[in-house]
Amino acid sequence: MVFLETDDVAGMRRGVVARGGAATELEKVNWIKMRVFQIADPDGHTLWFAQSFQEPDRPKDPSRQLIKMLPGIPLTDVAAGVAYYQRVLGFHVNYVQSDLGVMDRDDVTILLIQRKEQHSGVAFCEAYVRDADALYAELVGRGADVQGEPVSHPWGLRDFQVLDLESNRIMFAQPFE
User: Fold this and answer.
1) Do the domain assignments include residue 119?
2) What is the CATH number of the domain that holds 75?
3) What is the mean pLDDT of the segment spanning 106-118?
4) 66-75 and 2-6 as β-strands: parallel, antiparallel, unpaired?
5) Given 114, 141, 158, which residue is the final one in a domain?
6) Is the pLDDT reported for residue 58 higher than 70?
7) Are residues 48 and 107 in the same domain?
8) What does the pLDDT read at residue 34?
9) Separation between Cα atoms, residue 1 and residue 110, nearest integer Å
10) Burial classification of residue 83, based on how many CB atoms lie within 10 Å of its CB (0-12 exposed, 13-18 middle, 19 or more buried)
11) Domain that includes residue 21, residue range
């Protein structure tokens, strides 16, 4: 599952339908406080497009539709995942139920979802950070499964990777010039 936040969810849905996409009707999803529609990609992966209840249905910049992504991370044991993301990675619970955990840290939100046939395999996602070295030191101190020290790349990112308790990979990347 991929979650995409937009400034104009009604306009995004009209655009998807106009291009032949089989979008669901817009609905309010109270646990995330958003209006949402979903589509499936050709491989059957679910894509959610959403907009906050508080935002008007008008784009701030009509040429830009997507403003945020919410990765879905599959776990066999969502409760253990919620505890791990809190204790080791420093996330806070936004919402939790037996098969779903909505986790926040600073400006980043992730979904911990129950591993099922349509949510199988391992996930990879990347979060941009202000200070890769400081976050690296914090996560090492918390006992995270860090896969090496931060590395600066010629394309302008300094990054490092962490594996969660089920080998989902999270890259933390700091842009630099």
Assistant:
1) no
2) 3.10.180.10
3) 87
4) antiparallel
5) 114
6) no
7) yes
8) 82
9) 11
10) middle
11) 2-114
Which is nearest to 65 in space by CA: 133, 136, 122, 11? Answer: 11
Find all residues with CB under 8 Å of 48, minimum gap 6, and list them: 1, 2, 3, 4, 36, 37, 38, 70
Where is the domain boundary, 94, 114, 134?
114
Token pair 């979650």 in the structure block, residue: 3
DSSP letter, residue 160: E
In terms of Cβ atoms closer than 10 Å to its own Cβ (0-12, 13-18, 19+), residue 50 is: buried
Counting beta carbons within 10 angstroms of the beta carbon of residue 2, is it exposed (0 to 12), middle (13 to 18) or buried (19 or more)? Answer: middle
Query: Do 17 and 74 belong to one domain?
Result: yes
pLDDT for residue 149 is more than 90: yes
Total structural domains within the chain: 2
Instruction: Give the type of residue at 146.
Output: V
At residue 16, the 3 state secondary structure works out as helix
CATH classification of the domain holding 144: 3.30.720.110
